[in-house]
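Field: COMPLEX_INPUT
Field: COMPONENT_COUNT = two
Field: RESIDUE_TOTAL = 224
Field: MODE = joint
Values follow.
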Amino acid sequence: QQPVQSPQAVILREGEDAVINCSSSKALYSVHWYRQKHGEAPVFLMILLKGGEQKGHEKISASFNEKKQQSSLYLTASQLSYSGTYFCGTEIRGGSQGNLIFGKGTKLSVKP
Amino acid sequence: DAEITQSPRHKITETGRQVTLACHQTWNHNNMFWYRQDLGHGLRLIHYSYGVQDTNKGEVSDGYSVSRSNTEDLPLTLESAASSQTSVYFCASSRQGSRRQYFGPGTRLTVT
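Field: COMPLEX_OUTPUT
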């Protein structure tokens, strides 16, 4: 049931772009994205609720393909502050509201 | 300011002891969640509650219990601590009708 995130880790130079993918074997109601810096709590980035929906947060955006049960997080013109581990949390269709199953995370490192 | 707090932040205990981790939020959120985070596993849901007197098991609930006697608090109890329960524990909350979760700072528990 746990969604699969790819890649597991990525190293970027400042200004480069990255894509993080999240794929589930279950029909999804929503996909959530969180970022966690080392030693800190996860911080909410965005929720995608509708098939094909795309949302943005500064230079970070995401899409949700409901039919394929996949979501992608796009980081453009990366900044040092983007470093951290990104988690997708999936809410299964027909499940309890807000009951999330998280992927194992993607560690993003942005170098100067 | 409204917030979510966890205590203690660090705890070392011995195998077989009962341990209670506290979670307190001042947002008056109905929904509260407990996760554990281990390297290689991401965040896994232990228990959750949608309101006073309501508690539900998550995917890794064995050996844990919760009770909800008021809106603000959801303490997590390890009935008989085991070394496999060494982990970082995060509490989270969300308001009714919203899926955005706010995470507490975490409790690092070591069972020796």
